[in-house]
Amino acid sequence: MRRALVLPVASALGAMLLVAGCGDGKQADPAASAPPPAVTVIRVSTAEIRPATTFTGRIEGKEKVELRARVEGFLEKRLFTEGANVKSGELLFGIEKGLYQAAVDQAKAALLTAESTLKLADLDVERQTQLFQRNVSAQATLDQATARQGEARGNMLAQRATLEKAELQLSYTDVTSPIDGRIGRASISVGNFVGPSSGVLATIVSQDPIYANFPVTQREMLAVRKEQAANNTGPFVVYIQLADGSRYPSPGKIDFVDNTVNQGTDTVVVRAIFPNPNGVLVDGQLVTVVVETGKGESALVVPQQALQVDQAGPFVLILDKDNKIQVRRVDVDSVRGADAVIRKGLEADELVVTEGIQRVRPGQVVTPTEAKRGA
Q1: What is the set of domains in the chain, with CATH numbers?
Q2: What's 55's DSSP letter?
Q3: For residue range 67-121, what is the model confidence (pLDDT) as tens digits?
Q4: What is the β-pairing status of strands 85-86 and 181-183?
Q5: What is d(CA 177, CA 171) in angstroms, rounded to the nearest whole number?
Q6: 136: number of Cβ within 10 Å
Q7: Sheet holding 73-78, edge to edge
Q8: 95 CA to centre of own chain
């Protein structure tokens, strides 16, 4: 009886182990079942590359105005938003007018009195002249009347000048913008007493166009001039490279070369002018100025973000026809803004990985998404 019970139990245990074993065999490998990682790729393209020299430059507004109070009084109002664009003639600050308006009214009254006195003196001279011609009045009386007439005319002119001065002083209570540009922070708050000695109320800098100043050594200046004379390369093309490595879209042109050399650095200040309709370039900004000259040559370029460097040198990850990642060693000629110029190692239209580089390894199949240059 006991043996009969043992056999069914053993059979049941064996069946359970068999089922468990079959279940373990069917578990999938997570790495094998995961979808191919997604990467972004871009095609190697060709571009016309010209010899270029880079300089460190600084942006400078074409016009820069410091607003100051020209009369004394309490600042009553500020009519602009700090950092906003303002127009020429736009009212920006208001200084209390009461005292200056009273001076204008007083000067007008004094002028009216002076004009009345002059009119009376004119009538007296006319009357004394007639009496003198009829031998009724003496010459001395006419002379006295003429003298009073001149005195009245002089007083009238003085009062007119006083009125003009008072009106000018009154106009100074309205501080307006003399140029188009962007206004900065107000340095004095409403309610404070201001005057000619109060300092700058705010600063306005014109935005479009805008300058970029950069120093050029005498050696570089001579080399460029020799290159131009030998190859007739034409005018310079000037670009700005921004802090993030991107190139400012609008090229500039050199419009000024200083007539003196800095004896401490042996450099000449060169100025280029750029359009700046969107205000991307800001007065005082530090930039890299790229001056291109010479004849352009066709070269292969890839986004700078595709480049990687290890102990063996620079390389990129490319995508083969089977969507597998391959390592390709490259020889980099130079960096131009967001692009790297490749001397050798790549061919046009090959696909290089620009995003997702850290998620892949050589020989791995990936899911690529091609991006358009400049997107």
Answers
A1: 34-48+298-370 (2.40.420.20), 52-62+207-295 (2.40.30.170), 71-93+176-205 (2.40.50.100), 97-172 (1.10.287)
A2: E
A3: 999 999 999 999 999 999 999 999 999 999 999 999 999 999 999 999 899 899 8
A4: antiparallel
A5: 13
A6: 10
A7: 174-176, 91-95, 73-78, 193-194
A8: 31
SS3 call for 365: strand
How far is it, in rounded angstroms, from Cα 113 to Cα 156?
8
Query: What pLDDT does residue 34 have?
Result: 72
- Written as one string, the DSSP assignment of 319-338 is E-TTSBEEEEE-EEEEEETT
Is residue 305 classed exposed, middle or buried when 0-12, 13-18 and 19+ CB atoms within 10 A define those classes? middle
H helix runs in the chain, sequence order: 2-26, 30-33, 98-133, 139-171, 218-231
End-to-end CA distance of the chain: 84
Give the DSSP per-residue string, 145-169: HHHHHHHHHHHHHHHHHHHHHHHHH
pTM score, whole prediction? 0.64
Rounded Cα distance between 188 and 201, Å, is 6
Residue % of the chain over a pLDDT of 70: 86
Q: Which of 66-80, 133-147, 300-314 has the highest mean pLDDT?
A: 66-80
- Residues near 319 by Cβ (< 8 Å), separated by ≥ 6? 39, 41, 325, 326, 351, 352, 353, 366, 368
